[in-house]
Amino acid sequence: MARFTSAASFIVDDIHITEEGGQKKEYKGILGGAGPYALYGTRIWLNANTSQSLAFAAHVGSDCPQHSLTHLQSLGMSIKRHNHTYAHPYASNSFDFSVDRSETRGFEFLTSQHEYATYFRILPDHLATEWLQTLEYVHLCLSGDRCIKWAEGYRDRLTREEVTPVTGPPLIFWEPSPNCCVPSEYENFEKALDHVAVVSPNHQELSTLLGLPPSTESEINLQLLTQKIHPLTTRTTFIIRAGSRGCIVIPKRVSESDALRVFHVPAYWTLADAAKVVDVTGAGNAFMGGLMAGFHCADTQSGERWLTAALYGSVSASFVVEQFGPPVLSTDGEGVELWNGDSAERRLCILKERFARNLIGLC
């Protein structure tokens, strides 16, 4: 029974690294894209018996490496494959550690935007028919206008095929694509809020969208950001991601008279754990996947359901940043699933304790 999906990109990454001293390393054909990383973020909280509740409509190009597909299939999820004669979308990621470990990163999308948009975007009609009755959560990573079109297209398909979802139309977990977080896109961003359950830009993207000066993690002014989005919080829940400083959760207000509630959820790996963080690629996407799983697992009667969801998201992100590419799934001697040799539940307990003690003051 399909319950979770991502309609975000499935690409393949080539990674080029310059180490201290000038030594070169390359990792070719690595599974990438916002879609797979979000799927990993959700899958971390499932198991072999429940993995089929995770679904993905995979557009597969003619030269997609088999091992990338094997990684996807190893998650045990439901996959609807769409094969294409066109080359698979590729990206080149370069990391320069030659001066110090504060890397300079370069990114280049090697597939033309026209070709990607024409053949490799996941639209509502690409989802398997049998998923429509049971899907509860959809992750989207796209612009405001396309978010609206996707939500409307999904509802149109339900009407066209006379499908009545068991729990109603799925909740949309919207991660605005970075290139749409500019002031000229603000109107579309605002309109899209009425179509989603939560919106989660990172602090840099939100600052740019609002026309504020760019900020780093160390100088981020979350009080200013929350003040700026205050009028929008009657439309949906906001979760502002801030890297090693965690995230800010601002639950939707029922009415204009309701007070704005702002919560800080810490990251699992903080600045003190810099050595644990190898590559942040996909961390935000994995956070979104964990957010879906956490929202589903949280007590529905709890008034702080989004806080639980954010804790799950932070743990999901913690596994993704530990290596280049996705985390490694294994099992212990009792058959319990581990990720990079560790337990998601163990990390969740640690993070809950840290959150309860309120060790980090971000606001």
UniProtKB/TrEMBL annotation:
Organism of provenance: Chytriomyces confervae
A Pfam family: PfkB
Protein name: Carbohydrate kinase PfkB domain-containing protein
Superkingdom to which the source organism belongs: Eukaryota
PANTHER family noted in UniProt: PROTEIN MAK32 (PTHR47098:SF2)
Carbohydrate kinase PfkB domain residues: 187-325
